[in-house]
Every structure is written in C-alpha cells, then in structure tokens.
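In practice, a research group might receive sequence data for several interacting partners and want a quick structural hypothesis before committing to experiments. The following worked case mirrors that situation: the sequences arrive first, and a predicted assembly follows.
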Amino acid sequence: MQQIIFFFIRNKNFLLFAVLFIISVALTIQTHNYHNNKYVSSANFISGGVYTFRNNITDYFNLSKENEQLLQENLMLRKRLARLQETIVIEKLDSTVFPSKYQYYTARVINNNFSKTKNQLTLDRGRNDSIKIDLGVISSKGLVGIVSDVSSNYATVQSILNTKSRINAKLKKSSHFGSLIWNTKDPNVVQLIDIPRLAQLEKGDTIITGGRSTIFPEGILIGTVKDFHLDNDDNYYYVNIDLFNDMTSLENVYLIQNNEAREILNLEEGVEDVEQ
Amino acid sequence: MSNSDILINIVRFILLVFLQVLVLNNINLGGYINPYLYILFIVLYPLDGDKGLLIFLGFLLGLSIDIFEDSGGVHAAACAFIAYIRPVVLKYSFGVSYEYNSVKIRKADPMERLTYIASLVFMHHFVMFSLEIFSFKHTLLLLKSTLFSGLFTIIVIVCTMIIFNKKSQ
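A structural hypothesis for the assembly, expressed as tokens:
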C-alpha cells in the first residue's frame, strides 16, 4: 500500500499531465463527431459576451459595405416581388398568414474563422430566439453552413469550410447532384464531388443547393464552376467551385427552418423500421 | 514564488488570452498562419515555480483558448504537453545549471534562449495541429502549418520579450 502511495507521489506530475491530456484529447475527439452536445463551445455566456463586445466595435468599419449588400439584396427581392405580383392571383396575397414551409430568422456573425480545417462561426442568436440545432444558415449571397450547437443566447455554426460538412448540391442547368466538401486549401473555393460523368459541365456553370436534405430549400446559390476533372476511377467529376459568398467577411446571415423537417424525418425513420 | 510574481502571472494569463482571441487569431497571414503568442505564459513561468501547478495552469490556458476557438481540446492538450515537458527542454537548452536557479530566462545567452523558445513552440504547434487536423491525409498541411505558424510565433515571442525586457530595465 505504502509503495503504491509512494509511486503516486513520485509520479504525480506525470499522472496529472496524463489525466489532463486524456481529457483534452477526449474533448477534441468529441468535437469531431457531428454536433453532439459540446461541453466546450463558444456558444456560452463568457465567450459569447466577449465576442459580442468585439463585434460592437468592429461592426462600424464594415457598415458601408454591409449597407451596399443589403441594398442589392433589397433590389433583387423587389424585382422578384414585382414579377410575382404579375403572375399570382391577388386574392391569395390578402391573407397575412400565408402558410409557408420555411421560416426565416436573422442573426449577426460575432465570430468567424476560416483558416483551420474545421471552421465554426458564432451567431448572436440562441435558443431564446427559437434557434435550434440543424437549421440552415445562408447570407444574402449564398450558403454559409448549418447550426451545430445552441446555448440560450448564442449559436455555433459548422461552416461549409469544414472537412466534416457534406451538403447536397446540384448543377442549376441539368439537376445532376453531388456532395459539397472542402479540401482545406482556399477559403473561397469548395469542391463538389460525385457528379456523374454524363453531366455536361462548363466553366462558369451555377451550382445551387439540391433540396434533397431537410435543412436547405432547393435553389440557394452556392457558386460557379472554376475548373473540373475526372476523379481516379473516371466515373465522377471532381469540381472546384468559386463561392459567391466571401466566407472571410460575413456579417448578417439568415437562418432557415424547415417546418416540415420533423415530419419528413419521422416518415423516413418509419421506412427504415419496416425494412428491419 | 513571491506575491508579486503570482500577481504578474495572473495578469499575464488574462492579458495573453484576450490578446490571442481578439487580435492574433484574426491575422491569418497567407490564409492560415497565426502566431500563438499565448504560450509565452508557459515560457516565462518562474523556473522555481511548482511544476504540477504549471501543468494545470497550462491546461487551463489552452482550454480558455479552446472555448473561444471552438476547437474542442487541441490547445489544452498541446499546452499541458509543453508544460509537462518544460523541465526537460530547460535542461538541454541551458544545461544542468538551471536546476540551481542560477539561470534567468531574460538574461540567458541568446542562442540558448532561442533553442528553449523554439523547442517549446514547435512541440506545441505540432501537437496542436495534429489534433486539430486529425487525419493522415493532410500530413503536408500539418507540416506546413507547424513550420510557418511556428516561425511566426517564435518571431512574435522574441519581439515581445525584447520590448518588455527593455521597459523593465
């Protein structure tokens, strides 16, 4: 017994180090799993508060650019509205509670990183603003990411610049779909894989979200084809995509909630049960 | 450790964390190169201070950075590692004489000091980037990040030490 105690005393530094190292590696591995409840996340009271404070200061430097972007978005929405009014029967628009499949929220990005391999953003909205895990996040120019963790006032977003992200996307002109991934090299270029060889690809083709997930509606802009080549077994294209979004300067974003997501997921789970 | 030493170390801890998360993490030179100045806390921790306490404080320091960075425990692991390995690094950089408290980091021979800083920095960066990238597919990225961020960190640490050394004299 005494020897055991002596052993502990003699090696106490090593044991302390080993315990702490194992804890931190466990924390690391846990964040590599897709949105489990995280213990260490910037969506908490202290770091959220500090980032909000910083953002309140740095916001002023980008105001003119932000305004410009919002103006352009307004212009685009107005054009679309005008086109809609021409085609839709007026009685339908009378109703103020027009039932929609998707619900939108706004948020501000208070922390953004894009230089690591698994990048995250922090938003200033949380559970109290009815933000939930798995909501899609877009900006006025295109896709941003998916909410991975929420606290009462803040939320973290797994950006598309994250090696764990796989988002369904397709070619706008031919509807061939594939998965969006990131090879960690350039924060403005992402990759689209699994596009079949039959697809007619050209430089400059537009890529949009595919609508096959319950997270993003169909047709959200992602980017244009930069270049492409066949992958190793010559069956699929590996496409580099220039993002419309500048992922290095995000300020205002929108969150999308699919009101029918639960219904769809329940239904799909039911199908799996039948197969078993 | 005297009382003033404790106070200095507490202030240094807090200042370095804030400097790191609010300023230095946003530099992104060439897309991915950042200096990790906060390990200066471990570099400058008193040589006669308690080693167990340093391991714990190193872990806490890394964890604070992780909380802000959303990176799980990569900084915590790297900091705990260099805090644990520091006595060994001290011994091979300054020779055995450091054990008799005759060495002051600020007054040591510049070459020995550089060896000490560079060893800690590269070990820290290597552990941190391996855990962060966490796949064999990106080995080149791991080596590149370690090398370039490491050099950047060493330059920033040496500059910081020179500036504050002059002031205190």
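Before designing any experiment, note the following. Chain B has one domain: 3-168. The CA atoms of residues 59 and 76 of chain B lie 5 Å apart.
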